[in-house]
Amino acid sequence: MSFTTSSRPSAPIEEERSARVVIAPDAFKGTASAEDAAQWLGEGVREIIRDAEVLLAPMADGGEGTSSLFEGERITLPTTDAAGRLTEASYTYDAATTTAFIDIAAASGLPAVADSPVVMTGDTYGTGVLIADAQTRGATRIVLGLGGSATVDGGTGILVALGANPLNAAGYQLTPGGGHLREIADLDTAKVNIPAGAVDWVLLTDTSAPACGADGAAAVFGPQKGASPADVAVLDEGLATLCDVAGIDPNTPGLGAAGGVGIGITWLSTLLHGNAEHVSIQPGARVVAQANGVVDALQDASLVITGEGAFDSQTATGKVVATLCDLVAEHNPQAVVAIAAGAFNAEVPKMAGVDPIAVTLSDSTDVREQLIQAGREIAVAYLNISTIQG
Description:
Strand order of the largest sheet: 3-4-5-6-9-10
Strand content: 15-25%
CATH architecture of the largest domain: Alpha-Beta Complex
Protein name: Glycerate kinase
Keywords: Kinase, Transferase
CATH topology of the largest domain: Glycerate kinase, domain 2
Number of domains: 2
Low-confidence stretches: 1-17
Shape: elongated
Helix content: 25-40%
Mean pLDDT: 91
Distance between the termini: 15 Å
GO molecular function, one term: glycerate kinase activity
Radius of gyration: 22 Å
Pfam families: Gly_kinase
Number of helices: 12
Largest sheet: 6 strands, mixed
InterPro entries: Glyc_kinase_flavodox-like_fold (IPR018193), Glycerate_kinase (IPR004381), Glycerate_kinase_RE-like (IPR018197), Glycerate_kinase_sf (IPR036129)
């Protein structure tokens, strides 16, 4: 059963019944954090199913907000944004595991430059500053969330921050940004920050896109960052040239995330270790679901609720909503799945064998009330389905 609704729900057909509910939404970008979305959806569910056993499990897929979902100390320090302007950014450091959780969106994210995109000239230097700082605090492992970047620089900004400088054919340092990547001829390692570059890297992606080509970083994500068709061609050529100079296979799944950041990181780690075994590219939403207990909780759930700001054609490429459907299909296919979204810009398919309830947020200007209302509607739909199924 799959439907979209935004009307106020009627009372449940039968008396309220207990339910084990897992609420695991992504952030509704620009309106509600994942934590708030989970809380408000839960309030709506409890208004209809008052004795429901509810687990709130805010989710992320490697984009903005991912690092804050992990345990550890929040570190804030000055750095630069994608346009090179001074800013502040935060990450999480877990001293017990010597692991730093860093979102590339924190320093090099799109929102900070949305009014004046820098897709051709912006770089990830500011993220490199966070990485270097984490290593000085004792980090031996960097978990880097790759969603929400404003750049297509192949990670060269991070390399510069860690002392590895891209050079053109004349031996001069390359001008920052993806628009100049096709000029790269070499990488100078004379001043490389060996301790920072030699950490173990876990790259959390929300896409399986390769570095280059029709499905690559520039073609798929460049337009979202402000690239014209002509810009896309230049950026794609630059990423291909960087892969060639760095000796990286551009067809590696996930290498297109965050404008090809994995290219630079894989090159640096391979240089320092002699192989790429210290770099792991993993689906961000699955890693978060394992870390916050969602995978275990799903196995006993009768209702699983997820959501995002807009359900669209990219949802199925590794985003939270699609991942939750996959996990339900794998661990508890009998559970009812519901999706709340501000808009459904693509038809909601049966994902991984799961036919979800789809609820569109109302047109209220109060985001809290929108999500509470969505929780009510989902609860009513769940009760109706339970009645039909006996």
